[in-house]
Amino acid sequence: AKYTVVDQDTCIACGACGATAPEIFDYNDEGIAFAILDNNTGITEVPDELKEDLEDALDGCPTDSIKVAAKPFTCKSVQAG
Ligand code: F3S
Prior knowledge:
By secondary structure, this protein is of the alpha+beta class. The protein has helices at 16-20, 51-60, 74-80; strands at residues 3-6, 25-27, 33-35, 66-69.
């Protein structure tokens, strides 16, 4: 399983991710990316057919703002909170 979120603090709105994986990433009014699947909460599993796009977007982000994990990101927020 793969889950993804964009770290919006480091995203520089370069626009590569949405071009590479338009079904996974879109941009807010400022051009900052977010994951469409779950409104950038990282709790929805990326469908198998989009995993390749996800890998490509991950490789293409110049600021490493795309985070990918095998578990939902909720677990992390709970720990951090
Ligand atoms: Fe931002 Fe990286 Fe996408 S800088 S717009 S998350 S490719």
